[in-house]
Design a protein that fits this description.
The structure is a single chain. About 35% of the residues lie in helices and about 15% in strands. It is α/β, with parallel strands linked by helices and about 290 residues long. The longest helix has 13 residues, at about 1-15. It is globular and about 50 Å long. Pfam families: DUF3431.
Length: about 290
């Protein structure tokens, strides 16, 4: 057993590492007025459960004092009633379009000039809560974190991206948006890490480090029924609706790329959600720093 552990330690800490991808572009001129916001995408989850979830988040030391914004896509509820019952800072009703991907993009686009220093984006029923909180507590650093995924990850060949859940990038969205984000050719995208579950924390400097039109175009793909994301060439016979768009699966996997943190170095070092930490590891293993 000791021999096996030592071999694992040597492999994780001294084996040759893949090269870094291009350095992230950051907006260092923006001066946020709010330290931290929690953005929650809600639909028909029980209000009592959402309230308990928010309480758990607020009791997590690294999130203490955060503002809470809920976007709800259930048109039959009273937003003020939910605000009072959850003690959220604000509750905003949105059309039932695009699930959490559209919600997050909506927030970025409408809060561009008033983004918090860090925003944690979550669904109202967080996945893998047993592993979620330890990752948040172990890795988030209020002065250094640029982007930290709080869900599982995977790796794919950017030019032929797919995963074990039968999702495939048949139309080349990943190399296309890699080129937009990094101002490069599509061929420059070799391998990328995929994000899952729509739960992550990202800095305003990193959000604003790329052209705002990238976010606008992605949001437009969700909300315009005539956009490419709702057309046969993209759908290829798969089911699609405005409330449950097929494109949502691609967006879920693309947050790492969008926030310039799809490096193989991060993917290689980051332990699984279950293991939580690796021998010889540090808080930089699962994220991209701004400083």
């Amino acid at each position: 057993m000791l021999v096996a552990l030592w071999a694992y330690y040597i492999y994780q800490n001294f084996a040759p590492k893949p090269p870094y991808y291009p350095t992230g572009s950051l907006d260092r001129n923006y001066e946020p007025q709010i330290p931290l916001e929690i953005v929650i995408s809600m639909y028909k989850e029980p209000v009592e459960d959402v309230s308990s979830f928010i309480t758990s988040l607020e009791q997590t030391t690294v999130l203490a004092g955060a503002r809470v914004i809920i976007y709800i896509k259930d048109q039959d509820v009273n937003a003020e009633d939910i605000r009072q019952r959850t003690n959220a800072t604000r509750v905003t009703k949105l059309a039932n379009i695009g699930r959490e991907g559209e919600t997050y993009l909506h927030h970025i686009n409408t809060h561009w000039e008033r983004l918090a220093k860090h925003t944690i984006f979550l669904q109202a029923d967080v996945h893998n809560s047993r592993e979620f909180y330890p990752r948040l507590r172990s890795f988030f650093h209020s002065q250094r974190t640029g982007y930290l995924s709080l869900g599982p990850s995977d790796i794919c060949d950017c030019q032929h991206c797919g995963d074990q859940f039968f999702w495939k990038d048949n139309t080349g969205i990943f190399p296309e948006y890699y080129s937009h984000v990094h101002n490069s050719t599509q061929d420059a995208c070799k391998h990328v890490s995929l994000s899952y579950k729509g739960q992550f924390i990202v800095s305003a400097a990193r959000i604003r480090g790329i052209d705002k039109n990238i976010y606008k175009n992605l949001w437009h793909a969700f909300v315009d029924e005539n956009s490419w994301a709702h057309q046969p060439e993209f759908l290829r016979g798969r089911s699609d609706s405005m409330s449950a768009p097929r494109f949502g699966y691609s967006m879920e996997r693309m947050w790492n790329l969008l926030f310039q943190c799809s490096d193989m170095d991060v993917a290689w070092k980051c332990p699984s959600m279950i293991s939580g930490w690796r021998l010889g590891g540090d808080i930089g293993d699962c994220q991209c720093f701004d400083t």
